[in-house]
Write a structure and sequence with these properties.
The complex is a heterodimer.
Chain A lengths: L8 H6 L5 H13 L1 H19 L8 H10 L4 H5 L17 H16 L6 H19 L8 E2 L3 H8 L18 E10 L2 E10 L2 E9 L9 E5 L2 E8 L2 E7 L3 H11 L2
Antiparallel strand pairs in A: 1-2, 2-3, 3-4, 4-7, 5-6, 6-7
Helix pairs in contact in A: 6-7
Chain B lengths: L3 H10 L4 H12 L2 H17 L9 H20 L1 H5 L4 H7 L3 H5 L4 H10 L3 H12 L4 H8 L3 H27 L1
Classes of the chains: A alpha+beta, B mainly alpha.
Chain lengths: 258, 174
């Protein structure tokens, strides 16, 4: 006998595309339907196999140059994005918006936190907030407070600024270069943001401690062209945000927590 | 020609998705050289029509153009691929793509061949979802599949891929 839900709902659930009510309904269904449980595991395993076997086909340097030449794109303008300066006083006025976002998100999250089953929704609400932080960080001068490719410079910089110490590692050899770090804000709490460069993409790694009694957040997704991945290790939470490919984020996650 | 300000916007919003463009084109055309030609043409098109980009998801916007160009290219150069539902057995043998053959023995090669043997409509949703990490909304935007149909298309594509992989393993074992 084939369960009707394997054809549709299961995939939406697996991909984090169901709304909270339907996700909860499906989780309830899973408790009774072994067919769906097995297929869900298989579907997730298939996804991991595809992502972990280096199937992503990248643009060659040669084509990149060809395109840039053909369109007469001016390199220096784009490079400006990657020049890091300390934030100026005038530029930081837009940070006044942060508390407003934070209050709204705290309210949403407070409501959602009452339903542990909606962990995925909570993860994606948190990710949404961090995607905004990622986009803000790309504004000129906002990316890094401490600029260094040396983990032994970046790590001590956080000391005394946060009540936790984020793990800081450089993965240049594996294609993820540490660029620097900064402080950011999530729901009114300070979080550490580490910045990595992957080819022409900027990746933000947000690190913050889980509060007592919070459920572990885990999830991968995408919003408006930005990919994110969230996981927890020990009592620390991690979230990667970037316009780099999802497979790149998985690769970096594997480096951080093999 | 775009104004300097628009050109910078194009560089910041669209050019970062060159990898995504190549990835989709390479999997749709199953050949890197053809994919790069089509992507170059698609980038030119995106650049010309950038004033029609209304903001929002630049990756989906670019991928939509890339996909259209890929299908036009297939229509012109390999119309059979679009007309026939592939016979898996037959097709696996035909996949004389050197890149694929070289990697034949290992897990990666097995996955590449299985993915390449799927019909393009299945292949594209898998590539967009599993490799590119697109949301259903983005997949709908790129492929023109109705939002409500994305889930069932993915379901069928995954089932087909799983079956192809299982068949490949059985064949290797015998």
């Amino acid at each position: 006998m084939t369960c009707d839900l394997t054809q549709t709902t299961l995939h939406g659930y697996c991909d984090g595309e169901l709304d909270a009510v339907r996700a909860a309904e499906f989780e309830h269904h899973l408790e009774h339907c072994s067919e769906c449980r097995i297929l869900l595991l298989e579907t997730r395993a298939l996804g991991s196999r595809l992502r972990q076997n280096d199937l992503y086909q990248r643009c060659s340097d040669e084509l990149r140059q060809r395109v840039e030449k053909q369109l007469g794109l001016a390199r220096p303008e784009v490079q400006a994005q990657f020049q890091f300066q300390r934030p100026t006083r005038t530029g930081s006025l837009r940070w006044l918006l942060v508390p407003a976002f934070a209050v709204a998100t705290v309210a949403i999250i407070a409501v959602l936190a009452r339903f542990p089953v909606q962990q995925r929704v909570l993860a994606s609400a948190t990710a949404s907030e961090l995607i905004d932080a990622h986009v803000r960080s790309l504004q000129p001068g906002h990316l890094t407070d401490v600029i260094s490719t040396d983990q032994h410079t970046v790590k001590p910089w956080f000391d005394g600024k946060l009540d936790f110490i984020p793990p800081v590692n450089d993965y240049t050899a594996q294609g993820f270069s540490l660029v620097g770090g900064r402080l950011d804000v999530l729901n009114g709490h300070d979080v550490a943001a580490l910045v990595y460069a992957r080819r022409k993409h900027t990746i933000n790694l947000f690190v913050w401690p889980a509060r007592q009694g919070e459920t572990a957040l885990y999830g991968w997704g995408s919003r408006e062209g930005y990919n994110w991945g969230m996981w927890q290790a020990g009592d620390m939470r991690f979230c990667l945000v970037s316009d780099a490919a999802q497979s790149d984020l998985h690769e970096l996650q594997q480096l951080i927590h093999p | 020609m775009l104004q300097p300000q628009e050109r910078t916007r194009f560089e910041l919003l669209v050019v970062p998705h060159l990898d995504a463009a190549v990835n989709l084109a390479r999997w749709l055309l199953r050949n890197r050289a053809d994919a790069e030609d089509v992507v170059q043409e698609a980038m030119l098109r995106a650049y010309r029509f950038f004033d029609q980009f209304r903001g929002g998801d630049a990756r989906a916007w670019l991928l939509q153009i890339v996909r259209n160009n890929c299908y036009t290219w297939l229509q012109k150069n390999r119309p059979l691929e679009l007309m026939t539902e592939f016979d898996e057995e037959l097709h696996v043998q035909q996949s004389a793509n050197p890149e694929t053959l070289a990697a034949q023995a290992d897990e990666r090669g097995r996955l590449m061949r299985a993915l390449e043997s799927l019909p393009p409509r299945f292949r594209e949703v898998l590539v967009l979802r599993e490799l590119e990490g697109c949301s259903y909304k983005e997949i709908a935007e790129v492929t023109g599949i109705a939002m409500g149909t994305v889930m069932s298309t993915l379901s069928r594509a995954r089932e087909r891929l799983q079956r192809t992989l299982t068949a490949a393993v059985t064949k290797e074992a015998s």
